[in-house]
Every structure is written in C-alpha cells, then in structure tokens.
# Entry
Amino acid sequence: APTIAGASPDQTDTDSSAWNGVVELPGTTASQFVVRTTPYVSVRVLRWMPDDEPDDPRPVVVVAGWGSIFDGWRPLVAEWAKKRQIIYIETREKKSARFDRRPKVADFEMANHGDDIARALALLGVKSREVDWFSSSLGATLLLDAFQAGTLSGRSSVMLAPNPSFSFPFWARPILRLPFPRAVYARLRSLGMWVVRRKTKEPAQRARYERSLASQDL
# Structure
C-alpha cells in the first residue's frame, strides 16, 4: 500500500477481531488504513482493488450504520469488489475508532461524522464528486447532512433507511445519563441480545445483529 500523509497502511493478515486487520476478499487486493481525521480522532478505512480491470475506475464508498461490523456487508462487498474499487469507512462511534482524549457528546454530532468521511477521502486522493455512495442508517443520515452542508458531493448515492432522528425510549434516558458501573451495562447488553432474538425473525440477520451488539465498546 502507498504511504499516505495522515493515514497508516496495514497489510497484516486478517485479524479475528471484528474491528482490526485487513479483510481479504477473493479476486481483489485488500488494504487497511487508520486515518487521522482530526488531531484527536482516527477512523478505520478498508479498501479493495479488483485484480482484473474494473468496470469503472471511480470508487464505490460504503458508509454503514451505527455500530455495524463489516461481516454484515461482506456478501455484498465481496461480489462488488471484483468489479469496482470499494472503500469502506467506519465512522467514529465504532469500536475501531481511536480517540486520543476522552470522547465528548459533541464529538458525535452529525457534522463531525461528515468531516471524517471528507478527510479520509482527501487523504486517499479521492474526489467526492466522483464517488458512487452506498450507505445505510447512520451512514445515510450523515451523508444527507454532509451533502446539504456542501462538505461532500457525489456522482450517485444509494441510501438505505436514513434516520430523520435518533429517539431513545423515555425509560432508557436515565440509564444513558447515570454513571453506572460497567458491569451494569454488560447486563443491559444481555437484555438487548434477548430483545434482538425475540424481534428478529430471519436467522442470518439475527446472527449479524447479535454479533454487532456483542462487539460494541460499552
């Protein structure tokens, strides 16, 4: 991988962790970058280049939803990456992000997510106006915000279920605000897994949701 100012390429073998290591896909050359998007935040970027001549030299940039791990998108990306350059950017709320100071609530405002994506593309030498976007949930929401603000543009964009708002149930708000010990949140995660099992009927989707929830940084 080329050396990129502000980005650290890593060509190690695939890590068993959901949040680290190059992800090898058939018919592609894979790389991972840790990209410093602000003086105190770095995000993980995965990139695949087709071994054969791509159908289009312009990249597809994938921005997944809140807490998503790559395994949920592997089947789609594995097929797509054989024909197009794919750049998969993990946003700063994910466990793969690195903070050099204690995170603040304001760090996760939508504009900051959009700035991260713009900075990551700039460091990779990609112009956003040439990008075909594919996003879901939080990823789609941050793109809508960034498009409106002029932070990002694109050639085309497919958005799955953008969120007009992020509303937590009334009963959950005290739990989010009170400084409970970490052990309490571990038990709440177990409760969340139980809810996922009850409400998600499709087995493969349920397994993806369970793994995503289990992989989050409390």
